[in-house]
Amino acid sequence: MTSSSALVSLSLLAALVISSANGACTRFFTAEDAQSVNVPSNLDPELIPPQGNVPIAQLFGLGAQHYTANGTAWVLTSATAELFNSRFENIGVHFYLPHADPKGGQPSWKTPCPRSLVTAKRVFTAPVQNNNIPWVLLEATNSQGSCGLFGDVTYVQRLFTKNGLPTSTAPTDINATFSSSYTSFYVFYKQM
Ligand SMILES: *[C@@H]1O[C@H](CO)[C@@H](O)[C@H](O)[C@H]1NC(C)=O
Ligand SMILES: *[C@@H]1O[C@H](CO)[C@@H](O)[C@H](O)[C@H]1NC(C)=O
């Protein structure tokens, strides 16, 4: 075998490995999903990422916000949710890192296939309305997996929230926990 044919077989092998890795992804995010992004045009300007960032995906989140009592109030400690595309296929999860990353990011979203992850920190929180968790803008502090949906994500919006606030009853025990189910849409942005 000459060295140039060896090179060709190597790149063929790489192509096969990549295609079979993607082939295992049966619930891929599609162009159809990208077209379903629907950000209201009258959104509070502080919820809108800087110019140059464009929405690439909108996912439906279904899960719970988790609170811990600090003695006088319920304090948000994390959230867990399943993420669905426009065909209601489960394509990823929302979770919190155990500790904030060096840039202050903790809420995270990841897809298993192709693998991708974005972690972000809140930069704006809109006022709470109608007993739903607030709409927020988060700026990415870390993203991984350029082949996956969340690689290179720069901003995340949480919009159209439903429920998820802690109980209005003040906690009696320090470290008591309370989980509150919620739904929302998450819109993911990349720099173009
Ligand atoms: C508990 O959290 C509330 C709301 O964040 C805060 O105002 C209060 O100071 C906290 N109390 C303690 C004991 O840390
Ligand atoms: C509450 O949890 C913290 C952190 O785990 C712990 O240090 C503290 O002792 C706990 N307090 C009570 C009253 O259980």
Automatic annotation (TrEMBL):
The keyword Signal applies. The lineage of its organism: Eukaryota, Viridiplantae, Streptophyta, Embryophyta, Marchantiophyta. Residues 1-23 form the signal peptide. It comes from the Eukaryota. This is Uncharacterized protein. InterPro entries: DUF3455 (IPR021851). Pfam families: DUF3455. Keywords: Signal.
